[in-house]
Amino acid sequence: MGPQYARGVLGSGLFGRALAVLAWAWLPAAAWAQDPPHPILFVTQVPIASDFANIVSTFGSHHGRIDRAPRGGDLMLRYPDGTLRNLTAEAGFGNAGQQLANAIAVRDPAVHWSGQKAVFSMVVGAPTEQFQQGTFYWQLYEVTGLGPGQTAAITLVPNQPPDYNNVHPTYASDGSLIFATDRPRSGERHLYPQHDEYESDPTVTGLWRLDPASGDLRLLQHSPSGSFHPIVDSFGRVLFTRWDHLQTDQQAEADAEAEAGGDPSIFGTFDFGSEDAAAAVGPRAPEIFPEPLTAVPGSNLSGHRFNFFFPWELNQDGTAEETLNHLGRHELHAYFPRSIQDDPELADFNGVGRTNPNAIESAFHLAEDPTQPGRYYAIDAPEFGVHGSGQLVRFAAPPGANPDDTVVDYLTARSTFGTAGGAFATGRYRNPLPLSDGRVVAVHTADTGEDGGTGSASDYEFRLKFLQAGAGGFLEPGATLTAGISKSVQWWTPDTLASYDGVLWELQPVEVRARPVPPATGFALGAPELAAFTQAGVSLQAFRDDLAERGLGLIVVRDATARDRADEQQPYNLRVPGGVQTSSGAGQVYDISHMQFLQANQIRGIGGSDDPRPGRRPIAQPLNDPEAVAANAGLVDGPPASLPILPDGSLAVFVPARRALSWQSLDPQGDAIVRERFWITLQPGEIRACDGCHGVNTANQADQPRVTQTAQALVELLQQWQAETGVLFGDGFEDGSP
Q1: What's phi and psi for 487, nearest 5 deg?
Q2: What's the CA gap between 463 and 441, in Å, rounded?
Q3: Alpha-helix runs per DSSP H in 77-185
Q4: What is the pLDDT of residue 586?
Q5: How far is residue 605's CA from residue 237's CA, in Å, rounded to a whole number?
Q6: Where are the domains of the chain?
Q7: 3-28+39-249+304-511: which CATH number, 1.20.1250.20, 3.40.50.1240, 2.120.10.30, 3.30.450.180?
Q8: Cα 48 to Cα 300: distance, rounded to the nearest angstrom
Q9: What is the pLDDT of residue 710?
Q10: Which residues of the chain fall short of a pLDDT of 50?
Q11: What is each CA distance from 622 to 2, 139, 210, 275, 735, in whole angstroms?
Q12: What is the DSSP letter of 694?
C-alpha cells in the first residue's frame, strides 16, 4: 500500500475519510520527508486582528487602505531543500522599518502553466506622515526568475484597470489573466464603488479577463456581492467562490421599520432614478424581488434570507455560469425553510434522504487535487471573526458528475469550523494546497476561537504546515515549512504610528511546477436548441453575431413546469393554463402563465441623499435595458418585463449581456410562484438554455428525466427574427463557435 494507493482510490464520506487516513498512515517513511516535491510560492503578511473587509476577510478583502492591508509582507519562495528567497526584496520592492512610499503588501500568487513565472497582486505605498490618508490600489504584477541562481524580476501587468483594486489573478489557457476587480461593471466612475447586498460595503464587481498585450478587457460575470479566488482547473473550467446574497436590502428594511415607528432612518437609504451620473434622487422604493427579509404578517410567505459562499464555474469566455456541477443548497446545506407557509405539501429542507451526509456552509479557497483531476479541496468557514479560516473539506465534482451523487469529505473535524472548540478541534485552516506527490499543505493556526486581538496583536499565528493523520480519523497539523519569517515594521494608521515586531503570517501557497495547459472552454449549444435553429431555418452564427452587436444574450426555458425532485421548498406542482402540467401526483397545482425577468440595477444609495457615500448598491428591477426592451417588443405581455409561457411550457427572452439577472414565474393574477434564488450573467451572443425552473439532476417532481424537448418559444422567436432580418440558414457557421 504505497503512494499510488493514497492518491488514486480514496473514497468519500465517513468511510472514505477513514480510508484516506489509513492510506496516508501506510505511506513509506520517505514520503513523509518534510520537503515538498517542488518549490512553494507564498506571501507573508503583517497580522491584523480585525476581521471586517480586510486583506484576509471572507469578503471585502480588496481594499488597498493601510488599515485594511498593513504593509510589510513579501512574496516568498521556498525550495524543496528549505532555502527561502524573498522575491519582492530581490526585485527592489518593500522594506523593513518605517513603511512609507516604497511600502508594499502582496497577495494572491498564481503560477503560469510553464512554471516559469507567476502573477500576483501588490499594493505599493503608505502614508508618509501622520493624518495623511492617501489612495492606494492593488495592481497585478508578474514575477520571473524563479529558478535557483536566477534573480527575480517583477513587472507591472500592462493595460489593467488603473485606479481600481485588481486582485485574485489566475492564468487562462492562452496566458491571458482572469481576476477580480472593483472596477464598475460599466466602467463609469460615478458608480464606484459597487456596494454589496449585505453590509452595503464596497465589493468587487465580478470576474474579468484581460489580454495584457492588446488591452482587451472583458467582464466575464457580474456579481452584485462579489466573486473571489478564481482558478482554471485541469478541464479548463473557471472555478471560483461567489457570494450569493440575493435578498432585499437589510439596511433599507431597518430604515423602513424606524420610519414606520416615527424615527429617522438609521442608514439613510434612498434611490437614484437610474444608473446615470445625473440621475434624480428620490425616496426609497419598495423592493419587488425576492420576498421580504421578514415575513409580512398575514402573508403566506416565509422571510427570505440568503447568505452563502458557493463554488461556481463558468467557461473561459464567460459563458455557462452555474454553481459548480449544479451543486447548491439541496446538496450542500443542512437546513432552509419553505417559501410558502400555507401549502402543506411544501416542506422545510433538512437534508434527509440525500447522498451527502456532511453539510457545509461555504467553499472558500478552492484548490484542485493534482493527483485526481476533478477533486477539490476547500475551506468551510464562518464569515466573521476568523479571517476566512475553518474546516478543511474535499469533494469530487469533475465535469458531468451528478450533484445528487456528490459527497463532501470532512478532512478535519467539524469542530474546526465553529469557534467553540470541541472534539478534535486542532485549530483553524485556510488556503489548502494539495501537492503533486499526494500530500497536503495548508495555512494553520492553533487558535480555535474568534480572533480576540487588537491591531496587529492577533491571537492567530497563520503558518504553512504539512498535514498528517491525526486523532479521530482526521488530519491535523504537522511540521511547518519555515522556521518563521520575522520582520519589524512601523506605519501611520494614518492617525497614529503603529508597529509590529514578530513572526509574519504565511498565506496563499502555490506549487511552482509546469502543468499541462487545459482546454480553452467556451460557448456550446445543446442539441434541442440546435434543432430549433434548423427547424426555423436560421443561421446560428448570424443570430449570435446580431445578439453580440446589440449587447444581448438569449435565455431559453424548455419547460417552466419542470423542477428538480429534491426542491420541495417552492411550489413544484405546476401547470400552464391550457397547456403542459408537471406534478408529483398529489397536492395543490399552481398555474403559471408568465415569466418575469429582473436585472441588477445599481441605484440604491446610502448615507442620506444630501451627502451619500460614494457608489451604489444593486437591487432587482424589472428588465429595463433599452436594447433588451426593444428586442422583446411584441413578446412582452402582462406584468412588467414578463413574457407568456407557451403551452409546451417554453419561453425565450432577450436579456442584457454582462449584467446580473434573475427571474420568477407568475400566476395569471401576476403573483410570484417560483423565484430564482441566484443572479446569472450572460455574455454578448450567448444563448443560455435550461430544462426547467430548477434544473433536474436525476429526475423531476414527476420522476421524469431532464427535459430535452425543443422549445416552441425558441422556434417562433427565430422564425420572427429571420423574417425581420432576411438572414438565411446558410449565411454563417452552424457549429456554435463564438
Answers
A1: -155, 150
A2: 10
A3: 87-90
A4: 85
A5: 36
A6: 3-28+39-249+304-511, 529-725
A7: 2.120.10.30
A8: 46
A9: 98
A10: 1-33, 730-738
A11: 59, 36, 31, 14, 34
A12: B
Neighbours of 281 (CB within 10 A): 12
Which cell goes with 244?
Answer: 450569493
Note the pLDDT of residue 637: 87
**What is the per-residue pLDDT for 10?**
32
Task: Label residue 229 left, alpha or beta by phi (over 0 means left) and psi (-120 to 50 means alpha).
Answer: left
669 Cβ contact partners less than 8 Å away, ≥ 6 residues apart: none
Length of the chain: 738
**Percentage with pLDDT > 70 across the chain:** 94
Please report, for residues 221, 249, 304, 695, 711, the alpha-carbon distance to residue 596 in angstroms, rounded to integers and kept in the order given: 21, 20, 19, 18, 18
Strand order in the sheet with 428-434: 428-434, 440-445, 463-469, 475-480
As a whole number of angstroms, the distance between CA 404 and CA 390 comes to: 25
CA distance 469 to 327: 29
DSSP, res 438: S
Closest-CA residue to 495 (of 135, 49, 132): 132
On whether the CB atoms of residues 91 and 98 are closer than 8 A, the answer is no
Q: Which three cell numbers stand for residue 572?
A: 413544484
- Report the distance separating Cα 589 and Cα 249, nearest Å: 32
Count other Cβ atoms within 10 Å, centred on residue 444: 29
- 428: closest CA among 415, 441, 437? 415
- The H-or-E segment that residue 24 falls in is helix 13-25
Quickly count: other Cβ atoms within 10 Å of residue 8's Cβ.
Answer: 11
Report the 10 Å Cβ neighbour count for 508: 25
Residue 453: how many CB atoms within 10 A of its CB? 15
Query: What residue type is 126 in one-letter code?
Result: A
Helix, strand, or coil here: 542? helix
